[in-house]
């Protein structure tokens, strides 16, 4: 754990330095904030791209090996059904928490936000049009696995990998074992790369934080103080629920799990990308004691179907926009919205600013001005920090819980 503690400390230092540098530029050289931001956030871009480079081959190899090694199709079905039960339950709870708290706290009624020009939301408005069943199906089923790899479409890679893994499991050892061994070696080599790439994380964190503070300064927290306060309170409630469920299932080992994933949580928070920590999360969950077959099967599915932070944000933001415009929604309408979000949000992993796209589409369906998304765009970066970190926690808990239910969670953990 020494290396992990050093990385954690380096990320904390980078976070503080990023805020200081960004604040200094914003206050002392405001005319240079834009070019400074554009240049320094390249550090974050380098880190994110390094991680994105290995996600597709890592998902493919680990998932295929995990399923092929299971060999028992009944086990695949059993593990998959338990995972989906967790995903659906967690999604409904997350959506419901967002719905209850936004109605109770009413940030849209007490906050007097300036109505912004909808031009900043034009791109989202365009991308949300027609985002319904046809796009959903196209987003799930790959027309070319090479295109899915090239564009990092995780859900499409998952679909192909599951089918390929099941086919491999039924092929017989004589043919299957050489392929499984090859993919296993590739997966471990990629995980080795993770160790190298993660040392770029502090630079990525510094660049991402410095850029956003230099551009927006600290004023943005004052303008949107109530919205941020209420949203982070809602996130805290969701964390409390997730951790209570986690403690009920894992017992005292929950605290060991949290120690294991502290770096992935912080990286996700700083870079607003749960995708950026996927490889590191695989590694830490296996070190925690989760069976590698279960990790390689559940975690990629979780990244597509188990986005707890994003789910909670969708109901919170949608009702907030309705409150800003003075639109009253009945309990029935809000429950219908919850169910619509439950369906439309599945399989949007990999879509840029996916949560916002879904919110725009949902607002349009329920007569809420979709241009209202422009109200929350300036602070979406800060909300995205909490969403991303919560998504990572939810997927770590889901994988650990399913491993425990399957009797595949080692008590000792330890290094791989």
UniProtKB/TrEMBL annotation:
<keyword id="KW-0813">Transport</keyword>
<protein>
    <submittedName>
        <fullName>Cation:dicarboxylase symporter family transporter</fullName>
    </submittedName>
</protein>
<keyword id="KW-1003">Cell membrane</keyword>
<feature type="transmembrane region" description="Helical">
    <location>
        <begin position="47"/>
        <end position="71"/>
    </location>
</feature>
<dbReference type="Pfam" id="PF00375">
    <property type="entry name" value="SDF"/>
</dbReference>
<feature type="transmembrane region" description="Helical">
    <location>
        <begin position="154"/>
        <end position="172"/>
    </location>
</feature>
<feature type="transmembrane region" description="Helical">
    <location>
        <begin position="226"/>
        <end position="250"/>
    </location>
</feature>
<feature type="transmembrane region" description="Helical">
    <location>
        <begin position="319"/>
        <end position="344"/>
    </location>
</feature>
<feature type="transmembrane region" description="Helical">
    <location>
        <begin position="356"/>
        <end position="379"/>
    </location>
</feature>
<dbReference type="InterPro" id="IPR001991">
    <property type="entry name" value="Na-dicarboxylate_symporter"/>
</dbReference>
<feature type="transmembrane region" description="Helical">
    <location>
        <begin position="83"/>
        <end position="105"/>
    </location>
</feature>
<keyword id="KW-0472">Membrane</keyword>
<dbReference type="InterPro" id="IPR036458">
    <property type="entry name" value="Na:dicarbo_symporter_sf"/>
</dbReference>
<keyword id="KW-0812">Transmembrane</keyword>
<keyword id="KW-1133">Transmembrane helix</keyword>
<feature type="transmembrane region" description="Helical">
    <location>
        <begin position="7"/>
        <end position="27"/>
    </location>
</feature>
<feature type="transmembrane region" description="Helical">
    <location>
        <begin position="193"/>
        <end position="214"/>
    </location>
</feature>
């Amino acid at each position: 754990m020494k290396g992990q503690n050093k990385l954690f400390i380096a990320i904390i230092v980078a976070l503080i330095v990023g805020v200081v540098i960004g604040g200094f530029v914003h206050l002392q050289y405001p005319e240079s904030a834009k070019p400074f931001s554009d240049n320094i956030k390249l550090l974050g871009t380098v880190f994110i791209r390094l991680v994105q480079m290995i996600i597709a081959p890592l998902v493919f190899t680990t998932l295929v090996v995990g399923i092929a090694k299971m060999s028992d199709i009944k086990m695949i079905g059993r593990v998959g059904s338990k995972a989906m039960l967790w995903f659906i339950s967690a999604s409904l709870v997350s959506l419901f928490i967002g719905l209850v708290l936004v109605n109770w706290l009413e940030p849209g009624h007490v906050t007097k936000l300036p109505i912004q020009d909808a031009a900043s939301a034009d791109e989202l408005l365009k991308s949300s049009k027609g985002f319904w069943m046809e796009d959903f199906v196209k987003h799930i089923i790959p027309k070319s696995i090479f295109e899915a790899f090239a564009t990092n479409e995780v859900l499409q890679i998952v679909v192909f990998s599951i089918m390929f893994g099941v086919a491999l499991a039924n092929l017989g050892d004589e043919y299957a074992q050489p392929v499984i061994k090859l993919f296993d070696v590739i997966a471990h080599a990629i995980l080795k790369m993770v160790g190298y790439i993660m040392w770029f994380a502090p630079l990525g964190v510094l660049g991402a934080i410095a850029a956003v503070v230099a551009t927006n300064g600290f004023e943005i927290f004052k303008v949107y103080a109530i919205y941020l306060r209420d949203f982070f309170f809602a996130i805290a409630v969701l964390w409390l629920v997730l951790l209570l469920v986690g403690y009920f299932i894992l017992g005292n080992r929950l605290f060991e799990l949290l120690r294991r994933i502290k770096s992935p949580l912080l990286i996700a928070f700083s870079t607003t990308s749960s995708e950026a920590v996927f490889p590191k999360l695989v590694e830490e969950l296996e070190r925690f004691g989760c069976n590698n077959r279960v990790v390689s099967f559940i975690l990629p599915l979780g990244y597509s179907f188990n986005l707890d932070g994003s789910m909670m944000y969708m109901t919170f933001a949608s009702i907030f926009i309705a409150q800003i415009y003075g639109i009253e929604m009945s309990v029935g309408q809000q429950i219908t919205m919850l169910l619509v979000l439950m369906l439309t949000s599945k399989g949007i992993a990999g879509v840029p600013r996916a949560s916002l796209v879904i919110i725009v589409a949902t607002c349009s369906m329920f007569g809420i001005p979709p241009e209202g998304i422009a109200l929350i765009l300036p602070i979406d970066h800060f909300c995205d920090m909490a969403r991303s970190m919560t998504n990572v926690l939810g997927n770590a808990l889901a994988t650990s819980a399913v491993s425990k239910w399957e009797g595949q969670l080692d008590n000792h953990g330890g290094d791989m």
